[in-house]
Amino acid sequence: MSDLQNKLENKKVLVALSGGVDSSVATALLKQQGYAVEAAYMHCWSKGPYCSTEKDQADAAKVAAYLGVSLHVFDFEAEYKKKVISYFFAETEKGRTPNPDVMCNQEIKFGLFLKKAKKLGFDYIATGHYARVKKDKNGYHLLTGLDSNKDQSYFLYRVGQEQLTYTLFPIGDLTKVQVRKKAIELGLPTANKPDSTGICFVGPAKVKEFLAQNIKYTHGEIVNTEGRVLGRHRGLPFYTIGQREGIGISASVPHYVASKKPKTNTLVIAPIGHVALFKRRFIVKDTKWVSGREPDCPFEAQVKLRYRALNARAAIKKINGRFEICLENSQRAITPGQSAVFYKKEDVLGGAVIDRTLR
Q1: Collapsing DSSP states into helix, strand and coil, what is residue 167?
Q2: Which domains does the chain have, with CATH numbers?
Q3: Which residues of the chain have pLDDT under 70?
Q4: Which of 35, 151, 246, 290 is the most exposed place for a label (fewest CB within 10 A)?
Q5: DSSP calls for 118-158
Q6: What does each C-alpha distance from 198 to 53, 99, 101, 130, 201 come to in angstroms?
Q7: Which pLDDT does position 50 carry in this prediction?
């Protein structure tokens, strides 16, 4: 046995095993690399017709048994409801479009789960995220996953130095195709399981139905940019900036949601190509920097405005204690509540929540 294998065998890793193919392969790879591996399933949601907790936990148990690793089960349902779902409902009621997956990573996977692992004596945690960690003289860096189609760094910008010190991303250097191939080669029980969709831990929920059962909303007017009434909306929380489908009006050309006016409970829409659909400047709040240090302002970076969106060049400056983002080119559907994540090439600098757009 090599010195490296001896060294790794003394390092205990707790893998977040969700019952999906990505975390299954992550667990298998860590075993192959010589770590002392155990797994954990996080029980966070058990309500509603879309909940897949029972099946996912059973799949996690099958993978753990197949790989010969112990499986812990952590009940985080109360904390998940308080810190993630309550946030999701509250922000949506205010007319924003929050991203619960970002909050889930901060509060649950790299919050409660990491604390639990450290308390149990593990040296590292690992997840099946498509992202990478690199250490140099300046500390730990969060990097994009090598598979640009599956890169999940957008959801991880709130993970800082303390968390990255204890984090491994075993599949960050692989493509999804390679992960599937590896799962088949290893004969993993989840090799052909479809990717999960929907809200983190909740499952493939019909979001409008999910919200309707849990938040307050009031019907109101749909107007154009000149204020002319075009119809009625079912409640502002059920719409997001840039939305086309399901607005509920009939027009000769496609119309999109341009803005939401909570004070008057008004939904403003505009036809395709209209100037109201595009913005260049916006203010952010609740900013987090991966390095733990705020960059010297002003500075330039690439900004991702939503998951799977192409990065956009931007200048970032600080005015009266708040960061203002000025894009090189106007972008469509800049959405309050969503995250704006800042990149330097493959390096995630940090990110923030979009607060409001500017003219």
Answers
A1: strand
A2: 3-186 (3.40.50.620), 217-273 (2.30.30.280), 276-358 (2.40.30.10)
A3: 1-9, 47-52, 197-205
A4: 246
A5: HHTT-SEEE---SEEEEEETTEEEEEE-S-TTT--GGGGTT
A6: 13, 11, 10, 17, 8
A7: 60
pLDDT of residue 8: 62
Rounded to two decimals, what is the model's pTM?
A: 0.93
Per DSSP, 203 falls in state B
* Catalytic site positions: 104, 200
In this prediction, residue 1 carries a pLDDT of 43
Tell me if 76 sits within 8 A of 112, measured CB to CB.
Answer: yes
Indicate the residue type of 318: K
- The C-alpha atoms of residue 100 and residue 353 are separated, in whole angstroms, by 12
Per DSSP, which regions of the chain are E strands? 12-16, 36-43, 71-75, 124-126, 131-136, 139-144, 167-168, 220-223, 229-233, 255-261, 266-271, 278-289, 299-304, 312-319, 322-332, 339-344, 347-358
